[in-house]
Design a protein that fits this description.
Blueprint (H helix, E strand, L loop, with lengths): L2 H14 L1 H7 L4 H22 L5 H13 L7 E2 L2 E2 L2 H16 L6 H22 L5 H21 L1 H6 L15 H6 L5 H23 L6 H24 L10 H17 L16 H4 L1
Antiparallel strand pairs: 1-2
Length: 287
């Protein structure tokens, strides 16, 4: 792949994924380029799913096109093919965003998080030649933790887009219209955010336990990115304002970097415990 392509993917990552771009600066150039390429693919799919002008047929056509590419493409990175069944699961999650359905159960929520984010964890493993199935399970958990943080942060923005990711078996009184009308300090929404983030922390813990499977040269970078994202949850709880988008500024990123250093050398445990995502993963891949 050309230097021009890598530079383009780097700019996409820097603009849309500031946390992940900051983490990529801790990687070597070749590894960072892999991460930029994968991020750009995921961003492309996400943008298409978020565009109301694109129907499901167009998304299926994109999938067909991506899988047909043979040389220098997103799917075939220097001869390494990404697992197509995992990409299929990723597309299923994006198709759900087109439908804007309301989850019935907590398990529906977790399944969606697996599809749109847990799959990305597996794809990251793939581009760094990590094929251990246990590693993939931990990667799924880390992705789910990140997505639950996203959902907690974006409740108001999603409601504006007529989307709601809070399962009915948590609170059946909520709808996008109701959420939009709430006061920004709504305790009802705050309690939902707390619940999402408490569960997210359990998935983060499992995800961190699997970082040992990644090559040492990229392990720290992904830990730092995840720690910054987990800090977004802390900002949400401190702000107690669901209409104000929480973020981690430079000063707190520096604090996260120090915490990551301490965690990296003291707390990456050698155990195989994972969270409840195991029954959500593609059985053909993780059996």
């Amino acid at each position: 792949m050309s230097k021009t392509s890598y530079n383009y993917f780097r700019k996409i990552t820097a603009f849309h994924g500031k946390t992940f771009y900051a983490a990529s600066l801790l990687m070597g150039k070749n590894d960072a380029n892999k991460a930029y390429t994968l991020y750009s693919l995921c961003r492309l799919i996400d943008d298409i799913a978020d565009n109301p002008k694109n129907d499901q047929n167009e998304i299926y056509q994109l999938k067909k096109y991506l899988w047909s590419l043979k040389q220098g493409s997103f799917i075939h990175y220097k001869g390494l093919a990404l697992p197509e069944i995992i990409l299929e699961d990723l597309f299923k999650g994006m198709l759900f965003d087109q439908k804007c359905n309301h989850f019935e159960t907590e398990n529906d929520l977790f399944n969606y998080c697996y599809q749109v984010a847990g799959t990305v964890g597996i794809l990251i493993c793939s581009i760094f030649n990590v094929n251990h199935k246990q590693a993939w399970k931990h990667a799924v958990d880390l992705g789910i933790g990140l997505q639950l943080t996203n959902i907690s942060r974006d409740i108001y923005e999603d409601a504006i887009l007529n989307r709601i990711y809070i399962p009915k078996d948590w609170d059946n009184s909520l709808s996008t219209e109701v959420i939009r009308k709430f006061n920004s300090k709504s305790n009802q929404i705050y309690q939902i955010q707390k619940k999402l983030l408490l569960i997210a922390d359990e998935f983060y813990t499992s995800g961190y336990n699997g970082l040992r499977y990644l090559p040492s040269k990229v392990r720290f970078s992904f830990l730092f990115a995840a720690k910054c994202y987990q800090q977004i949850g802390n900002e949400i709880l401190q702000n107690q304002n669901f209409k104000k988008r929480a973020y981690v500024g430079r000063t707190k990123k520096t604090t996260c970097l120090l915490k990551t250093l301490i965690f990296y050398f003291n707390k990456i445990k050698k155990n195989h415990s994972t969270h409840s995502s195991l029954n959500l993963c593609s059985k053909k891949i993780l059996k």
